[in-house]
Design brief:
The protein is of the alpha/beta class. It is built from eleven helices and nine strands.
């Protein structure tokens, strides 16, 4: 885990297995996310995979071990994954997944939990659990939000592979690139844009999305949003941002 100018990079580093994960990888990722929750200087998390792939999903040896587990043991195993995914999905920083090669099953689930997905046009995605007689249950809430129910119904049931271009067309991927250099250029462009924003404002904006998604517009909701902007306007960061804008200078947080 590397931190540079408020940006932390976590790299899945099992290239020999296409960064497939098991209980040990899940525990390690979960621990790193716990540390990041307490790290006030971090504004962006970039999630990458070493080698040819982002993540091929579940490690085959882990799946073999799980086949011998009781239902109770399997549930405990699944809850550990569910907890890690939720930590990633709700982390109060901008999260960016850079996807190349395979992003299968749980690997696709990891990308689903990120705010922004940059993918190579030739990346391969699949929710192939049904081909093994399984279902993508633990990752399902995040995949449904990321690609929508209509597309999820198809890919959950068919297990088809689809490339980065198709993932972009259905709205799962935000930015489509061609090759590693293009990926890096697009990432740096996003990081530059983010560096000009108020760090607290970005955190609060993400919380706004998480809290309001799917909520009906009620008087209580309108009161809540009015209270949020009132608190924000009264804060030091907003005052600095407005002053910088009016004085035609960069805000103190801009790099």
């Amino acid at each position: 885990m590397d931190v540079v100018d408020g940006v932390v990079t976590i790299t899945l580093n099992r290239p020999d297995t296409h960064n497939a994960f098991d209980e040990h990888v899940i525990a390690a990722l979960s621990g790193k996310l716990d540390v990041l929750r307490l790290e006030k200087s971090v504004n962006v998390l970039v999630l990458r995979g070493a080698g040819k792939s982002f993540s091929a999903g579940a490690d085959l040896n882990w799946m073999k071990r799980a086949a011998g587990f009781s239902e109770e043991q399997n549930k405990s195993d699944a809850l550990a994954l569910a907890g890690m995914l939720n930590k990633l999905a709700t982390l109060q920083v901008v999260t960016i997944a850079c996807v190349q090669g395979a992003a299968m099953g749980g690997g696709l689930g990891l990308a689903s939990c990120c705010d922004i997905v940059i993918a190579d046009k030739d990346a391969l995605f699949a929710l192939s659990e049904v081909k093994l007689g399984l279902i993508p249950a633990t990752i399902a809430p995040y995949v449904l939000r990321a690609m929508g129910e209509r597309h999820a119904r198809r890919y959950f049931q068919t297990g088809e592979r689809f490339n980065g271009q198709r993932a972009y067309e259905i709205g799962f991927v935000h930015e489509i690139v061609s090759g590693a250099d293009d990926m890096e250029d697009r990432l740096q462009g996003l990081l530059k844009a983010v560096s000009g924003n108020g760090p607290d404002a970005m955190k609060d904006a993400k919380k706004l999305c998480l809290d309001l998604a799917g909520q009906p517009i009620t008087p209580e909701l309108m009161d809540d949003t009015a209270s949020r902007i009132a608190r924000t306007r009264a804060g030091r960061e907003a005052k600095e941002g407005l002053s910088a804008f009016l004085e035609k200078r960069k805000a103190e947080w801009s790099s």
